[in-house]
Design a protein that fits this description.
Blueprint (H helix, E strand, L loop, with lengths): L2 E7 H6 L1 H9 L2 E7 L2 E6 L2 H8 L5 H11 L9 H13 L12
Parallel strand pairs: 1-2
Antiparallel strand pairs: 2-3
């Protein structure tokens, strides 16, 4: 993760490029601006690689989370059955409203 960033205009960045590369290597993001607006950010290769890593889809993330906390092999217990029994008394088992047809 990068630390606080520094801002430089394009002209300043051109004049101090070597220094800015060293800043980025140390974990400081360097923002480059044009007329006061950010147009680029210089970060370390390590940070760039971290940002480019593919992100898992939601289902993969949930499965990984369940595995990390040992929930993927968890057996149903008495408390689960009691909860389901309570929910069965609360759930509306009717088929729902009639469908509207034109």
């Amino acid at each position: 993760m990068t630390q606080a960033s520094n801002q430089y205009s394009i002209a300043q960045a051109r004049d101090r490029f070597t220094q800015l590369v060293h800043e980025a290597e140390q974990g400081n993001a360097v923002e480059v601006t044009r007329r006061g607006q950010r147009v680029a950010v210089l970060v370390s290769a390590e940070e760039y690689d971290r940002l480019r890593q593919p992100k898992p889809c939601f289902s993969e993330a949930v499965l990984a989370w369940r595995k990390e906390f040992g929930l993927d092999t968890r057996e149903e217990d008495e408390e689960d059955r009691e909860f389901e029994a309570i929910m069965d008394t609360v759930r509306d088992k009717s088929p729902g409203p009639e469908l509207f047809e034109w």
